[in-house]
């Protein structure tokens, strides 16, 4: 079977689903799961492949919360070391921050919720990495920041080299604009910039939060503007603030609607160069009704408390069963 591998941080990470989409069908209840938080890009593709009755590709998700780019590289190295992917393997790599919170270093290697510590439980051998190889994602251990940025540029160059040698095709983008003026200057002088897709962006933003690049934010105009946008900024250009994020003030991870835009306009066209996907499940009436309900539900989210997510999932299930599937509750 041909392999499609997604790598990245929490922007890419997918829950471990107990059920996969049914080949040749569309299950709106299954599709709706977790959407009150978000739906990762890889899951949109899984439903697309199933709806188009394609069983020759397997989608694998190697994303994890707080993963930095050295972590991502180590996971890719493990993946290609265990598998022959050059003939028909496809990789999607979402690059993370240049410097993550130092506390995250301990968290990803010790927390019961970390993807790395659950590697054995879920049978993901690719997550078995040496913590000493990824310290540069969490600690600045050089005196000059230009040296630190060059370490990260070299790391991204190594990612590109590994992908080129081991995959048939690949696509790389940043999750969000992680740049500083100094990094941007060094980045533009590097050759690796030609392998990583970025976008110009400009959008209004009332509630500045983590993931938005503060150096690109105009406080007076309440606008974000830059040239090194990632998937978050690409979609933010097209969405009202109330629908862009997991939570409008507390959590600016991309929402279902942000990831949907990025999938439809960027990732799906990339795959359509190699895979025929003629049927479009987004045109289904049941999807339109579900999304309209979700548009009304998300702005009501009071916080990121897990209880609220659970209550919203119950609301979604009730709506789908009563108003779409016409089932008795």
What is the radius of gyration computed over CA atoms, rounded to a whole number of angstroms?
Answer: 20 Å
Shape: globular
Largest sheet: 4 strands, parallel
Could you say which structural class the secondary elements and strand pairing correspond to?
alpha/beta
DSSP helical segment count = 12
Query: What is the level-2 CATH architecture name?
Result: 3-Layer(aba) Sandwich
Q: What is the helical fraction, as a range of percent? A: 40-55%
Could you tell me how far the N terminus lies from the C terminus, measured between alpha carbons in angstroms?
41 Å
Mean pLDDT: 95
Percent range for β-strand residues: 5-15%
> What is the total number of structural domains?
1
- Spatial arrangement of strands, main beta sheet: 2-1-3-4
Report the CATH C-level class.
Alpha Beta
**Which fold name corresponds to the CATH topology?**
Rossmann fold
Residue windows where pLDDT falls under 50 for at least 5 positions? none
In N-to-C order, the SSE pattern is EHHEHEHHHEHEEEHHEEHHH
Number of strands: 9
């Amino acid at each position: 079977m041909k392999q499609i591998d997604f790598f990245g941080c929490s922007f890419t990470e997918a829950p471990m689903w107990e059920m996969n989409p049914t080949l040749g069908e569309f299950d709106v209840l299954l599709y709706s799961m977790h959407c009150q938080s978000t739906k990762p890009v890889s899951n949109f593709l899984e439903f697309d492949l199933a709806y188009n009755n394609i069983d020759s590709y397997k989608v694998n998700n190697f994303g994890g919360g707080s993963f930095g780019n050295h972590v991502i590289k180590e996971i890719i190295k493990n993946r290609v070391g265990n598998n022959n992917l050059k003939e028909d393997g496809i990789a999607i790599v979402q690059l993370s921050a240049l410097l993550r919170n130092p506390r995250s270093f301990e968290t990803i290697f010790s927390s019961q919720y970390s993807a790395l510590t659950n590697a054995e439980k879920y049978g993901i051998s690719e997550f078995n990495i040496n913590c000493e190889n990824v310290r540069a994602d969490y600690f600045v251990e050089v005196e000059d920041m230009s040296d630190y940025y060059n370490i990260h540029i070299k790391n991204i160059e190594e990612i590109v080299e590994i992908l080129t040698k081991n995959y048939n095709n690949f696509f790389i983008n940043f999750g969000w604009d992680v740049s500083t003026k100094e990094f941007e200057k060094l980045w533009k002088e590097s050759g690796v910039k030609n392998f990583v897709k970025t976008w110009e962006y400009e959008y209004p933003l009332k509630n500045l939060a983590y993931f938005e690049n503060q150096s690109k934010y105009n406080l007076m105009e309440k606008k974000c503007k830059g040239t090194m946008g990632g998937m978050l900024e690409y979609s933010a250009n097209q969405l009202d603030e109330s629908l862009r994020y997991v939570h409008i003030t507390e959590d600016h991870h991309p929402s279902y609607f942000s990831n949907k835009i990025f999938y439809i306009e960027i990732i799906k066209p990339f795959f359509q160069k190699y895979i025929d996907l003629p049927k479009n499940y987004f045109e289904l009436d049941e999807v339109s009704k579900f999304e309209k309900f979700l548009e009304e539900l998300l702005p009501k989210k009071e916080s990121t408390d897990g209880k609220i997510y659970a209550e919203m999932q119950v609301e979604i299930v009730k709506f789908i069963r009563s108003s779409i599937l016409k089932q008795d509750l």
